[in-house]
Amino acid sequence: MKKKQKKIKNINQKSFYFEEYLKTNKKSKFSKKDDNLQDRIYLLFFFFLSLVLVFSIKITHLSLSKTPSFNQEIRSSNFTLIRRDITDRNGILISRNINSSHAAVVPKLVKNKKNFIIKLRLNFPELPINKIEEKLNVGKYFYLKKRIDQFERKKFRALGEKSIKFESFQARMYTHGNLFNHDVVGQVDYDNYGISGVEKYFDRELKDKKLLKTPLRLTLDTNIQYIVSKELNKAITTFKATGGGALLMDVHSGDILSLVSLPNFNINKRLTIKDKKYTNKITKGVYELGSIFKTFTIALALENKLVTSKTIIEDIPRSLKCSIHKISDMKDHPKNLSVEEILIRSSNVGSVILARKIGELKFKEFIKNTKLLKSPELEIEEVGVPHKIKWNKCKLETIAFGHGITTTPLQAASIYSAITNGGKLIRPSLIKDRKREEFKNLISVETSKTINDILRKVVSSKNGTAYFADKNGYYVGGKTGTAEGYGSSKDRVNTFISVFPTNKPKYTLLVMLENPQINKELIYDYRGVKTKAPYNTSGWNSVYAAGKIIEKIGPILAINSDEFTNQYVVEKFN
Amino acid sequence: MFRSKIFISTIIFLIFLITTSLIKNQTRILEKKLYKLNEKITLKEKDINESQLDFYFLTSPAEIDKKVKTLDRNYLPIKNSKIFLSLSNYRSLQERISVINNKDEKKTKEN
Fold first, then answer.
1. Residue A306: is it exposed, middle or buried by C-beta count within 10 angstroms (0-12/13-18/19+)?
2. Which of B14, B56, B61 has the CB atom closest to A226's CB atom?
3. What is the pLDDT of residues A406-424, one digit of tens each?
4. Which of A530, A541, A447, A559 has the alpha carbon at shortest distance from A496?
């Protein structure tokens, strides 16, 4: 039995084992499933733990780091230029954009309108209070004052009115105020669009984002502009002129170093100007420039080899008749005059005789080549349109001495530059960095040299009309022109175009005075004699002003003068 | 084996997670710094712009002319003779003066 039991036990045991085996096998399957689940839970737990860890690290890192929060002031100072600078030829700033603001009102926020108006009236008496009151009643957002400065802003703030808002914008600032004309450098509107001068002509280029950091360089020279402007202003006051203009140009490149037209105004202020006297006299003004044209007549006569500078024109009459017109000279000249003397003495009759020799065709060709009767080509829109001429009976004769033909002073100065620089036509320009063009010859080099010699004699010889421009060392040459206003005998325009140094021409200076008068108190030193002005001709006012200008700009332009150096050596040695 | 794989991949995942967050955080900090530096640059540019504007206004010929008038000193324009275009220009002039001086000395000695 025991054996049996043992057997049974054994059998049982076997079966137990089997069962156990089976059980464990099942268990292991279950446990595997459990383990996987557990692992996943661990993984998830670990994942969340790590996330918590990461965030906690980040939080501690942030709390420990000492990075300051953004400064409000820095944020508000977002300033990027939207318009390029304009500089002169030496890099001196002429105009730049700055941050500015308009003071505006939100009427809905005004608590007490009466108080508001009283405050404005007391602090800003210049404001149009009635209009502001009307606008307040309308209830729409409006500007109190445009383009206010820092002090005005502070003043507005001090009013303690919530309704006053400051609208920021970029204003254009002109560092030299009224030194440069409104129609040369120009002006911009409140939206930064050019409205005149270079600002308008180069509006796109000035707003080009790629070029924002490179300024637009002009040919103008601030220092020279100041001297020219100052001397011209003095001349206008001295001779009680109604206005004036001056132009300094490089004879070879056509670069305009100075362009002054007076009267003018501060271009930092936006003004509505209807008065014609503010028109740019040099580029937009169209004048009959008188005797200045005689140089063209002589140049044409020489170029066509009809005469030489020494050719004597015999029996020049006191006056000539052309149709119903009588052409005569202001002064009595000798009967026989050489060609150069015709220009030196500024003989009208002599010029007419030469013009008749030249003929209408040649004159027409000269006018066509020089584009005298077309608008001048310059980088501004404010240019004049010369009057059209009809080649009737006496046109050639009157044009010979500068009457019956109009042009802008800019064009006249350009032709003078061309005649004196060796004969090459030039194109006046206000832009320093530009493509240089080659133009054809107007006259030959020989004719140009002869003309330079004659122009020098106009200034240096006894019979010349421009003595006051004879400044030692600068070999000034030039031609005077006294003319009545075109179509108005009341107006008078006295002009002097000079070229210096005539031995190697570098610059052309044009000085023009509108309606000058004789200054009875001014005593001139005329060839060593103290005298008062006998005539109201350009020789006694425009030339006088030009002389003063040349004397002062000469050292800046650094004209190397042998004549002066030699004299200085002698002076120093003695 | 299986656990080790999970463990390794978890560790790699965590490393990437942490490094990503760290890099992102650093980038953000750098971006902030860059932004702030750019702001400072624009602020400085604005200051320079305005001070240049002041400089050009204060050194404009009209302003200098005004200031000269307020000073007691009499400023005179420089004579052309005292302006030399180059050093060679100045030296040639000096040489010419010295030649004339020498000649004159010889003459005075002879006399």
1. middle
2. B61
3. 999 999 999 999 999 999 9
4. A541
Contact by Cβ (8 Å): A479, A494? no
Query: Least CB-CB distance to B18: which of A54, A99, A230?
Result: A54
- Hey, where are the domains in chain A? 100-173, 226-573
Q: Which residues of B touch A227 (CB under 8 A)?
A: 61
Nearest CA among A280, A515, A517, A303 for reference residue A383 = A280
Q: How far is CA A468 from CA A292, A344, A478, B18, B73, in A?
A: 17, 14, 11, 89, 30
Structural domain boundaries in chain B? 1-75, 78-111
Q: What kind and span of H or E run contains A173? A: strand A164-174
Interchain pair A43, B79: CB under 8 A: no
Cβ(A337)–Cβ(A481) under 8 Å? no
Please choose, from the candidates A403, A427, A401, the residue with its C-alpha nearest in 3D space to the C-alpha of residue A413: A427
Are B53 and A96 in contact (CB < 8 Å)?
yes
Best CATH choice for the domain A226-573 from the list 3.30.565.60, 3.40.710.10, 2.40.50.1020, 3.30.428.10: 3.40.710.10
B107: confidence class by pLDDT, cuts 50, 70, 90:
confident
Interchain contact, B25 vs A552, CB within 8 Å:
no
